[in-house]
Design brief:
Shape: globular
Number of domains: 2
Strand order of the largest sheet: 3-6-7-8-9-10-11-12
Number of helices: 12
Radius of gyration: 20 Å
Structural class: alpha+beta
Largest sheet: 8 strands, mixed
Number of strands: 16
Distance between the termini: 55 Å
Helix content: 25-40%
Length: 395
């Protein structure tokens, strides 16, 4: 029935919905992928149909250079992370969509720039992060900014992954995590936590020179959900033997068995002279963590244009606030709209990048709150408990 108390809703004009779909899953990598695909088939199909970025990726895929990059990346991922390839295949089968389209989404700018390496290429993505650490608490706030087509096209996976014996032999481990996911894409490249004490959020970064065939960032952030210790996380990010093909940074809270917590940011970039990633790790004690979509410490040649201009402007807005001392302060920063072209919380209908959700991780309360509207003037639509059930099993 199309009419609802006199208000007409259609797929084209439903606007920003205040909904956070959450699915609880248990099974092998393929099985959890399949069940995500089956349950969110309409959302995934809708996203693939409307996302302009996929059309751009397919155009590159249909060139000799693009197909070569796709093929070499797929071969390498089947060797390095075969169980995550199976997970994507499960999503494709469950949602009844082509696998190659989902894999193109995971290659992202690696495929999107294969025939265009100009510094002013149009990179999409966003996200603003701010966090503080006090003796009593650590609070991390994150805006999930993405192309406008991702509005209403996301969900949260809360998964217990039990690898098959075959996948275990290939390196898969048992996993317990919760992560926001873009439609049809692996968990990890957004915000979430695992039950070993790790909470993290992601900022897209845009090195000018990428490495086709190397590990796409979405595979590395998927693997990050398995980390039991900071050393594990560093090994995953370093990706020795191959290395990341594009770039990102991650904002991390580690909680340890004794109750201590660490707060850090790690910038990750392709190493153009070695088969590994470049990592720049910074730990925060008294200073405020602030990060958007430009490298702050690692010297990397980046693209120019909107993603950098937006990042610089949002950082300026974040710096204009006093250092946060409470969760309320974090809510205020995430809601900042001082600069109309590039606000921290972006909902302008004609903006190509939208804030699809905001998340606040409150480690004292052990909660992850997800907002669809500005956090300083709305209630969270969902509040998930942060469970660290495996914390005393890390060693």
């Amino acid at each position: 029935m199309r009419e609802l108390y006199g208000n007409s809703l259609s797929e084209k004009h439903i606007g920003r919905r205040r909904v956070v779909p959450v699915i609880y899953l248990q099974g092998s990598h393929y099985e959890v992928g399949y069940d995500v695909g089956r349950n969110f088939a309409s959302v995934i199909q809708s996203f693939l149909k409307t996302y302009q970025g996929l059309k751009d990726f397919e155009r590159e895929y249909n060139t000799a250079a693009g197909r070569a990059a796709y093929d070499s990346t797929l071969v390498n991922m089947k060797q390095r992370y075969p169980y995550y390839v199976k997970e994507i295949q499960g999503v494709a089968d469950g949602a009844k969509v082509p696998f190659y389209q989902l894999f193109l989404l995971h290659m992202d700018d690696i495929i999107g720039t294969i025939n265009d390496k100009n510094s002013n290429r149009v990179d999409s993505g966003g996200c603003s992060d701010i966090a503080f650490k006090s003796p009593e608490n650590v609070v991390l706030g994150h805006t999930e900014d993405a192309p406008m087509e991702t509005v209403n096209h996301f969900y949260i996976m809360s998964a217990h992954v039990i690898p098959t014996p075959e996948d275990r032999e290939l390196g898969a481990v048992e996993e317990r995590f919760a992560s926001l996911c873009y439609a049809g894409q692996l968990p990890g490249y957004t915000m979430g936590f695992n039950e070993h004490g790790l909470v993290f959020t992601i900022n897209t970064l845009s090195p000018l020179v990428l490495k086709p065939g190397n590990t796409p960032r979405m595979f590395i952030t998927r693997a990050l959900l398995t980390a039991r210790t900071p050393a594990d996380a560093e090994k995953i990010l370093l990706d020795e033997g191959l290395g990341i093909g594009n770039g990102f940074s991650t904002n991390v809270i580690w909680t340890y068995e004794n109750g201590e917590r660490d707060l850090m940011n790690i910038e990750v970039a392709p190493d153009l002279s070695a088969n590994k990633s470049i990592l720049n790790i910074h730990k925060y004690t008294n200073e405020t963590l602030m990060h958007c979509n430009a490298y702050l410490r690692e010297k990397v040649q980046e693209v120019t244009g909107d993603i950098i201009d937006s990042s610089v402007t949002r950082m300026k807005a974040i710096h204009s606030h006093a250092p946060p001392r409470s969760r309320r302060d974090i809510e205020s920063v995430l809601s900042d709209t001082t600069y109309k072209d590039y606000p921290v919380f972006q909902t302008r209908l004609d903006a190509p990048i939208q804030t699809i959700a905001a998340g606040i991780f409150d480690m004292s309360a052990r909660t992850w709150s997800i907002y669809i509207d500005k956090p300083d003037s709305s209630e969270p639509v969902a509040i998930l408990p942060i469970r660290f059930s495996q914390l005393n099993k890390n060693h």
